[in-house]
Design a protein that fits this description.
Layout (H helix, E strand, L loop, with lengths): L8 H9 L18 H4 L3 H15 L13 H5 L11 H8 L11 H17 L8 H26 L22 H18 L14 H16 L27 H19 L18 H10 L8
Helix pairs in contact: 3-6, 3-7, 6-7, 7-8, 7-9, 8-9, 9-10
Length: 308
Amino acid sequence: MKRYFYFVAGILAMTAAGSCQKDFLEKPSTTGTTTILTTFSTTVNANAAIAAAYRSSLVQGLPYSGLDHGTIASLSGEFSWGYNWHKTYIIVNNGLNATGNEEDDFNANYADIRRDYLIMENIDQVKDMDAATKTTVKAEMKGLIAYRYMGMFIRYGGVPIVSKSLTPSDSLDIPRASLQATEDTILSLCDQAVAGLPDKWPAAFTGRLTKGSVMAIKARTLSYAARPLFNTGTPVLSLGAHNDLICFGSQDANRWQQAITAWEAVVSWASQNGYQLVNTGGSPGTPDKNAFVDYATATSVPGNPEVL
């Protein structure tokens, strides 16, 4: 970070007269100040940044705020609201606003993506971290970026694509990419991430992205791409010349097969790495008699065998 020093005539006069003993060009103290240099000066500091990136990136889709406050689940009947301050209540009565607190908070996506890119671009500066770990961290950030783009793809269709951390000198006038370009970006990031991620992490790092978790991000993206809302030449909301932002322009049954193939790859990977469906009341090929209890376990118990 550049520091600029401004001198008034009085200070210059004092310096010339020798009335002040301190050097006015002395570097100010940076104690307590967090910068790119301090963040990536040690593994400990870098790990704190990585943890923060996970916290902010993965909150999308969880009960946190806006659609992340459970609005999708509420509108579909899975959740319900009991207070007029609940996000679902606000949306039902006032409608959606992509940049407001009552919805997805669109802008927050790009703040989190920028955080992930900053780590990816600066992790090589960490002197006490080995090269293999740095490669893994870069793959993790690509997976987190893919996750955020997946969420926007599902909600908005084509969105602006950012390929690095933007600076004040970069143009921020980035148009929406087509639906196809947005999907392609997500799938490419997923493939790159899978190539650099482990199948498992040591117990102390449970929760960090694995190959399987990013394979699931890819499969989910393909599932949403195959749905009739996108997989059509006639979108429900016509944007005229810009229909490519919200549909693929034609219906293609092969999109469903691509999604099936991707999910089969996730299941195959999971079975080889100790994961399995929670099914306490059934047997292979038979219904789960304790489906309600098992659903609660799968969605609410940390570390259960369904969590990738």
